[in-house]
Amino acid sequence: MNAVFTSFEKFLFSTITGNQDGSSKSLEVVCRIAPKNGKESCVSLVDDRNVKVIAPMNYVTRNNDAFVEKLFKFDCVFDENDTQRDIFRRCSLDFVENLINGNDSLLFTYGVTGSGKTFTMTGNAESDNSGLLPRTLDVIFRSLPNIMEKCIFKPNGRNGFAIQTEEKAQLERQTIPLPSYSIAKRLVETVATKSLNNSRCCAVFISYIEIYNDMCYDLLDENLTDERLFTSKNIRIDSVTRKAYVEKIKEIEVESCDEAIEQFLQAQERRKIAKTLLNKSSSRSHSIFIIRLVSASLHKGKYYPDSTKNDIHIAEMTLVDLAGSEPY
Ligand SMILES: Nc1ncnc2c1ncn2[C@@H]1O[C@H](COP(=O)(O)OP(=O)(O)OP(=O)(O)O)[C@@H](O)[C@H]1O
């Protein structure tokens, strides 16, 4: 099997109920067959759930045994006729709803080098080929009412958040740079999903890390390309929540989809520079993009979160583009 096979798997960490078939599934494995582009392929689509692996032309086994065709069953199979939009709507849209409902999800792409993992996850933000990540951000921001001004929710660096006073938030807001945009136009995912309860307010934070040779790098750190290039981050476990977190990484608050995509694109540039400087291969690194939705009840009669209620809720959606697996 060679470079024509991409599978990406869906993990839902929290129990999710109400799948279309009425079941409550916590894991789905979905397969996308990359375009053949004139090349020979030994993977063939049987139907929307089954894939057959057939013998490549001139295939000879070691003992001249006959090649045994194998059938693989998935939760869903896409082929080259399926678009980025089709993949998003089948594989990621329910995760956005899951996030808005306050649950965590993990989605990752897995496959051999060149099989289309990055194309599926990212695609091209400026064309109709935009992938799961920009589309996910589009729908998230379309589904959120009451997005607070920046710096009201404050990350504690260990997966937790606090509500700052109006004075502190305002002072801190003056110190953060205004977002800049390099994309002139973008095709936007127009589908809608269930919206957050109107009595709550929220903020969205992103972080983006790369794991290469067991080292963890912060791709949102603008200094990654110089002196901090060789400084990796530590992964720790919070003693109270028992959840893992990466120490001292940037969690950037974003107010719009365009702002989040801009941060992502700048991080991609950093990743390319670091790759050249360290002479590393991008296909051997994992990249992990985390979207955190922090919400709390709105204050009665005031457009501000109510800190007395102590009901901050954090939900996260993680999108992972895994390193290319070895072809065999
Ligand atoms: N479904 C598809 N439709 C159109 N082009 C595709 C598709 N899948 C992959 N490609 C193209 O194939 C090439 C390789 O894809 P991509 O870089 O996404 O592979 P990858 O699995 O991420 O590889 P690596 O593991 O080396 O990072 C790219 O030029 C991409 O645009």
UniProtKB/TrEMBL annotation:
Name of a matching Pfam family: Kinesin
One GO CC annotation: microtubule
Keywords recorded for this protein, A-Z: ATP-binding, Cytoplasm, Cytoskeleton, Microtubule, Motor protein, Nucleotide-binding
GO biological process, one term: mitotic spindle midzone assembly
Chief place of localization: cytoplasm
Chain ranges of the Kinesin motor domain: 26-328
Keyword Nucleotide-binding in record: yes
The keyword Cytoplasm is annotated on this UniProt entry: yes
GO molecular function: ATP binding; ATP hydrolysis activity; microtubule binding; microtubule motor activity
InterPro entries tied to this protein: Kinesin-like_fam, Kinesin_motor_CS, Kinesin_motor_dom, Kinesin_motor_dom_sf, P-loop_NTPase
Subcellular localization(s) per the UniProt record: Cytoplasm, Cytoskeleton
Binding site for ATP: 111-118
Cross-referenced PANTHER family: KINESIN-LIKE PROTEIN KIF23, KINESIN-RELATED
Family indicated by similarity: Belongs to the TRAFAC class myosin-kinesin ATPase superfamily. Kinesin family.
Identification of the protein by name: Kinesin-like protein
Organism from which the protein derives: Panagrolaimus davidi
